[in-house]
From TrEMBL:
NCBIfam families: CehA_McbA_metalo. The lineage of its organism: Bacteria, Bacillati, Bacillota, Bacilli, Bacillales. Gene3D superfamilies: Metal-dependent hydrolases. Residues 129-191 form the Polymerase/histidinol phosphatase N-terminal domain. This is Phosphoesterase.
Length: 428
């Protein structure tokens, strides 16, 4: 499988500081490479035994100071959207940067500062997370910190906390987490729910009484830059009863544990694809509180993203680079047609129309399906000698799309349930 890890390089620098520089600021210049997503900076101070050397730490870019921690830290990280407290996240533009030191106390015979910088480069790779969760900011019982910690423990990369008709959660995200916090808002009406993703404050007022009101709320969220999702549209308790022709980007085909409501949305989505519509399917746990069945990242949405950032993840979803598994542990499935990936369109002049499927973390008995606008094109049952890995190929010809499903027997329910669902590769 092409489970790419981001490229990383390390640079080390050494700077001798003589006693005469005590109480001055010293720069250790370095060149920031292009396409960097995050840097990790650490330093140590070496002085002769029984000598006391105190060196403060900070950093500047080519325009301004980007952070300062004095003598409080020996390490910090700086990224496009996240940074160690005391440091400013933001663009990591190529050019002249410098690690900053305050030579606060320098021994008579000087000291040596050794700095290590690890550069992590923007690399297209699969990230996983949950696009539909709740917190104490609405009717959930988890704090924001608890949600982030659970996702981190699961090895996930992102979470959207989509509390009902409020954006307060987006104002107080925890900082000390590696999980990307995607701003979210669940537009909750009496006749259907919709998630707004990527915008801190998408609405001024959620209250609606008719379709025209709904259209105006969606228009406001769109104008503010939100991505719009129709949530659990065929749910038994809160289906989407407004017009399905409303402005939206994606549809939540998989909400929580796989049940009939998801099956109905899957069938509806399949029909949309058959008509030629290219509509991206996503998933979300809709977790509110501890529950034996409804859990974080179940289902888990996988996104092929250019960067581990809000923008990178949402852009990846926009391109249809999405696969959904029942848990963060998979199964994981990729589809390719030559250089074209899930969500992409294979042009008509492309002679290679062979769809290749690669799957991992399968178990014996899993049913692997390739599905097109004509229905199931191939189905195989995973045997016990395949080590959880399977590959299929299919000559697509002139069909409209190909997508994949994995069905698995779960003893908890004593039946076959969806274990993985991919978005299609489209064919012109």
């Amino acid at each position: 499988m092409k489970r790419v890890e981001p490229k990383r390089t390390t640079a080390t620098f050494s700077l001798f500081i003589e006693h005469a520089l005590q109480s001055t600021y010293v720069e250790l210049p370095f060149e920031m490479p292009s396409h960097v997503e995050e840097i990790q900076v650490s330093y140590i101070v070496e002085a002769k035994e029984n000598s006391i050397a105190i060196i403060d730490l900070g950093i500047r870019d080519s325009h301004r100071v980007r952070g300062w921690s004095g003598g409080a830290r020996t390490h910090f990280s700086l990224g496009l959207e996240k940074a160690t407290p005391g440091y400013l996240s933001g663009p990591l533009s190529a050019g002249n940067w410098a690690v900053l030191h305050n030579a606060y106390k320098i021994p008579e015979d000087g000291c040596t500062v050794k700095v290590t910088i690890e550069f992590t480069y923007a690399t297209e790779r699969w990230l996983k997370g949950d696009l539909h969760t709740h917190s104490i900011n609405s009717d959930g019982s988890y704090t924001l910190e608890e949600n982030a910690a659970i996702m981190e423990q699961l090895g996930c990369d992102f979470i959207a906390m989509t509390d009902h008709n409020t954006s307060s959660q987006n104002q107080s995200f925890p900082r000390n987490t590696s999980v990307v916090m995607i701003p979210g808002y669940e537009f909750t009406t009496n006749f259907g729910h919709s998630n707004f993703l990527g915008v801190t404050d998408p609405l001024d007022d959620f209250r609606v009484s008719n379709q025209d009101d709904v259209n105006k709320r969606l228009s406001m969220a769109r104008e503010r830059g939100a991505k719009i999702v129709l949530n659990h549209p065929h749910c038994d308790f809160c289906p989407w009863e407004w017009d399905f022709q409303v402005d939206h980007d994606w549809v939540e085909v998989w909400n929580g544990p796989w049940t009939d409501r998801n099956e109905r949305t899957l069938n509806w989505w399949q029909q949309q694809l058959v008509t030629g519509r290219r509509l991206t399917a996503i998933g979300g746990s809709d977790v509110h509180r501890p529950d034996p069945y409804v859990k974080h990242a179940m289902p888990c949405t996988w996104v092929l993203a250019s960067t581990k950032t809000i923008e990178g993840i949402l852009n990846g979803i926009d391109k249809g680079h999405v696969s959904i598994s029942y848990s963060p542990e998979g199964p994981f499935v990729e589809l390719e047609c030559g250089s074209y990936k899930i969500g992409e369109v294979v042009p008509n002049e492309e002679r290679n129309r062979t769809i290749r499927l690669q799957a991992e973390k399968l178990i014996t008995g899993d049913r692997l399906k390739l599905i097109s606008n004509r229905g199931v094109e191939q189905e195989v049952i995973v045997s016990d000698n395949e080590n959880g890995i399977a590959e299929l190929s299919f000559e697509a010809g002139h069909i409209k799309f190909v997508r994949a499903e994995v069905w698995r027997y779960f003893k908890e329910t004593d039946c076959l349930l969806m274990a993985t669902l991919t978005n299609p590769i489209y064919l012109d």
